[in-house]
Amino acid sequence: MDPFFDHNTRQLTQSSWGDWSTSSFTRIIGFSFLTSVFSNTYVFDSVKLFVLGSVIEMGRRLCQWLIERFRFQYSITAQFDEGDPSYEWIVLFLTQENVWRRSRDFRVNAKNSKRKWGIKTGPEGKGNADYVPTYEEPQLFRWKGYWLEIKRGKGAQTVSHHGPNQAATIYVSIYTLDMDVLSDLVEEARLRYIEVSRPNVTVYIADMPTYGPGFVWSNVKHKARRPLSSIILLDGVIDSLVKDAQEFIDSEAWYVSAGIPHRRGYLLYGPPGTGKTSTIYALAGELGLEIYSLSLSSGFVDDSFLQKAASSMPKNSILLIEDIDCAFPSRDDVDDEEPLLNAGFQGMVAQNYRRSGRKSAVTLSGLLNVIDGVGSEEGKLFFATTNYVDRLDPALLRPGRIDKKVQYQLATKGQAAALFTRFFAEMYPTSEESPATTEKDAIPLAKLAENFTEGVPDHEFSTAELQGFLLSCKRSPKEAVAGIASWTEKELMERQQKETREAKRKDMLREKREKQEARKLEGSIARTLGGMGMSIYPPATASGLVTGGPVVPSSSPQTPSPAYEDSSGKSSPVVSDDITNPARTTSEAEENVTDSVSTNSL
Ligand SMILES: Nc1ncnc2c1ncn2[C@@H]1O[C@H](COP(=O)(O)OP(=O)(O)OP(=O)(O)O)[C@@H](O)[C@H]1O
């Protein structure tokens, strides 16, 4: 029975009518709303699209998930970080495999670094830039029947003078589970790199601080290989060096069986410009070794940086540390650096170690650890150069750390003649059939070289200096012969003048330091006496009326002499140059300015 309808009276009661009408109305309205919605094709199509879109998106995500699963299960991914030598290998490999053809993003580098993996953009030698693909978008290609995918990511952070830099990382995924395929790929990339770099010596330089995991050899240069014959040293020096290094490389098995770490250290020492660095580059070119170079005088190179750098070098390569004496204190350096420090910013670390008398943040023990440590084993050659061998600690020079020392000297007459001959050899071909030049016909080259050496005193000039002179008259050997005597005379005179100025400057610096130390001492005595209620001078002395006089107790223990007090009530450390001559109480600032001006003017 219908609760809202009274069949007897056939009337609806007031309350039941209201309820019924509401519910029916809602049903009718809802139905009609839905009917109207679905009868509207626009809305219906939108819903269909929405459902379809959701299905497609789900499908896409499912596919992505499956691909990721597949990749994870059936591929090997290798990571190549910029700054590591293997990064260079893989970039060259990708360039040679023409993977870049589908690239849209390129990094443009000036060609001066002779990078070997920039893509060819036209006929050989065209343009002054390298175009290096960045692989921002993943690329797929086939190699030896395997699918490889290349992706780029972000690597370790470095900091240069221009701010932080983000090194790049290249990920190579190979769709196989065979690790041998990956090692084959890396080995092939390495061999191709060596082949391409053969006419050059590859030099990795760490010239930026690195943060985070990994290590960045931030700069790579390819220098033209220099023939050993172009290095002019005393007879037999370079040959014995090359022979020694070659023997070391060839005798790895012997080192292992003898239980001796397979590394060897060389120290090349002598005046600047005598060919130390050139020798190492020529030797690396001859033996096909890469050079990893860093300078201890770079402010950011400390013990941990050095350790990381040494451990990230590959086998059979050279670790080159130039100016190794920077890690050792020298009193002269403190004097020399003082104006620099006062001039302004040097960096907190730099200030700390420079104040300690060193130019480097690397400590001796840090350096020895690197030479002895794990990072230095495995067929690594360690080369160090210095202009000041006497500053080196004996601990560094002991066999096992430095196995061979080579002394470089200023040029002898013989070296000067060899340099001259090398310089003008092209103008004076040795072959009999070579076309003659007028100069050649006039005087033979050997004779000219002999004449040239008459104007060069033994052991006075470096090879670099003589080379500089020859460059100024490179078109005419006769001109060089004619000008050498006056050039040496002028150079020697200038050198003497410079030495006099330098000696004077050092004297002034020493004097200044002694004065400062005396002032410090006086200040501390004054403070001590002031604290005890005493003064080093009677009150009249402090006012400048009386000079000299013994140290006497102050007349009033509670009130120290105002001459030793600054505005804050503390005793002033700067009063006089000499406690036995307290009359010089006037303008210290003026005197300091005079000192520094005269120092700078020197
Ligand atoms: N013995 C040499 N034989 C040939 N060239 C030399 C020789 N010495 C110097 N030079 C020339 O002089 C320049 C500087 O040489 P290099 O940098 O090798 O000297 P260095 O001894 O390492 O100097 P520094 O101690 O200042 O580093 C180079 O261009 C090099 O060609």
UniProtKB/TrEMBL annotation:
Q: Where is this region: Disordered?
A: 491-602
- Feature: compositional bias, Low complexity: 543-562
Question: Which spans does this entry mark as compositional bias, Polar residues?
Answer: 569-586
Domain AAA+ ATPase per the UniProt entry, residue ranges: 262-412
Q: Which SUPFAM superfamilies match?
A: P-loop containing nucleoside triphosphate hydrolases
- Membrane topology (UniProt): Single-pass membrane protein
Q: Which UniProt keywords apply?
A: ATP-binding, Hydrolase, Membrane, Mitochondrion, Mitochondrion inner membrane, Nucleotide-binding, Transmembrane, Transmembrane helix
Q: Ranges for the BCS1 N-terminal domain? A: 50-231
**Molecular function GO labels:** ATP binding; ATP hydrolysis activity
Kindly list the GO CC terms recorded for this protein: mitochondrial inner membrane
Where in the sequence does UniProt note compositional bias of the Basic and acidic residues kind?
Answer: 491-522
Signal peptide residues are: none
The answer, when asked if Phosphoprotein is one of the entry's keywords, is: no
Subcellular localization(s) per the UniProt record? Mitochondrion inner membrane
- The source's superkingdom equals Eukaryota
Q: Which reaction does it catalyse?
A: ATP + H2O = ADP + phosphate + H(+)
Q: Which Pfam families match?
A: AAA (PF00004), AAA_lid_BCS1 (PF25426), BCS1_N (PF08740)
Read off the PANTHER family from this record.
BCS1 AAA-TYPE ATPASE
Family of the protein in this entry: Belongs to the AAA ATPase family. BCS1 subfamily.
Report what the protein is called: P-loop containing nucleoside triphosphate hydrolase protein
Q: Which organism is it from?
A: Collybia nuda
